[in-house]
Amino acid sequence: MSDFFAPCPRGLEKLLADELASFGAADIRTTEGGVAFAGDWALCYRANLQSRLASRILWRVKEATYFRDEQDVYKTVFDLPWSRWFDVNDTILVKVTAIRCPLKSLEFITLKIKDAVCDKFRAEKNARPSVAKLDPDMRIHAFFEGEKFTMYLDTSGDALYKRGVRTHTNIAPLRENLAAGILKMAGWKPGIPLFDPMCGSGTFLIEAAQMSLNIQPGIARDFAFQKLKNFDAKLWNAMREAAIAAQKPVCELPIYGSDLYGDALKAAHQNLFDAGIRETVDLKQCNALEASPPEKEGILIANLPYGERMGDEDELAELYPQLGNVLKQKFGGWNAYLFTADMRIVKLMRLTPSKRTPLYNGAIECRLFEYKIVAGSNRPK
Hints:
Layout: E1 2-7, H1 13-23, E2 26-31, E3 34-39, H2 41-50, E4 58-65, H3 70-78, H4 82-85, E5 92-99, H5 106-125, E6 138-145, E7 148-154, H6 176-185, E8 194-196, H7 203-212, H8 233-245, E9 255-259, H9 262-274, E10 281-285, E11 299-303, H10 313-330, E12 335-340, H11 345-348, E13 355-361, E14 364-372
């Protein structure tokens, strides 16, 4: 058994813990921003391949305490058997994060960790790995909290929300694992009609279509664990082949998307096409305020404009009450889930949310507002 840590968008920790438990993970412990767990390497491969919610799967290789300064950290890192884990020809990148850390400079400790790894290789192999800031073979993570630090090797490589299928995006795309978490929080399951009237590049639509067809999120990409010396190619190939065999035939699904802007819709078309699932989703160009429900009932989900996507604040102040009217007048029988960082929506929508769930899109604090639409019943007195 090995110890792992799976970071995720803040707010999705409980969902991720449940997902990892369904994979067979043991000793599951949630913390802010992620989930620690234990398991064998088959579980590590499966979590990388199948997790829709994790950002990475990190292998914990050392937990230690330092008493004096950066030299303590250097010695601890130097003593680790790096050449047993990966080859000297693999490029590396060190990333350090910290909470309440007494060390004066994270940049300096990052350099010391990199030196310790390279010096160990030079001592054992008479050569040192190169550093690559873009697309390294091995990412080494160090997390400092107080006088304790933990070293991890990243088994994922690129972040897991990079599914390898959505290459065309708008200016502030929603990360795929956050979109998957929002779909789960909304109670959406394959077969339930889904409508995104502000679909942008199609993140919600692609996630829902892949879930419906049992297409695993990591099936179209590679992972860093494939470069580790303990990599079991036979096990991994069998796992991938089983996942491909379990996929359902591509067909039309009750998944609908629209967007006001043609460029966004073109990106959604292209992403669905590149993923091989274009025919699963019904797309059309339409103003959200003119949208009609595509079916009698279902789930409406939208990432509302905010942050980088935010237009003029006065325009948004006009949008919210109009959107509330559209939902109330047209979408009776539907449940609406609106994701935004703009807290003015509570007053301006003139609809009372039945639930408000805090979530983070990167560093931006947001809310997922739930509205159970029953015509004429949601307007506050």
